[in-house]
Amino acid sequence: MTSKSPADDSLDIDDFTTVVETFAGIFIRLPSVEKLSFTTLSVLHTLTHDGPKRLSELTATEQVSQPAVTQLVARLERDGLVERRPDPGDRRAVLVRVTAAGARIVRTRHRDRVAQLALLIDQLTPEERSAVGAALPALMRMAALGGHS
């Protein structure tokens, strides 16, 4: 298998993957506020951005077992970060939704990431900042194609 993109030989997919993996690791750890487990933060982020979900949907999106999601949601509910409500489309099912306190954690972490990234971006040359800016539309399109717009 080649690591070059079939559509454009100038893009080395292996290099791109390495950069994305490295950056993602740094990005995940940037916020210095609201330090919670990765899975907890991922559930709060999913519910904040995608809306209420059934436990089975959270199991799929978060890639953890059903018992783990059930336990996590119970803890988040106890902490006031999520709430369970009947699914209006199926009264036998329950939807988990983020509370104002849970959404506040997501917003606070986003603001902190913006501040932390600004410090890194300030260390780039004008040409590097321009290149990052020029790449944003393509990266946003890739995110949309991957189902995470």
Automatic annotation (TrEMBL):
SUPFAM superfamilies: Winged helix' DNA-binding domain
Pfam families: MarR
Superkingdom, natural source: Bacteria
Domain called HTH marR-type: residue spans: 1-141
SMART domains: HTH_MARR
Entries under InterPro entries matching the protein: HTH-type_Bedaq_tolerance, HTH_MarR-typ, WH-like_DNA-bd_sf, WH_DNA-bd_sf
UniProt-recorded name of the protein: MarR family winged helix-turn-helix transcriptional regulator
Gene Ontology MF term list: DNA-binding transcription factor activity
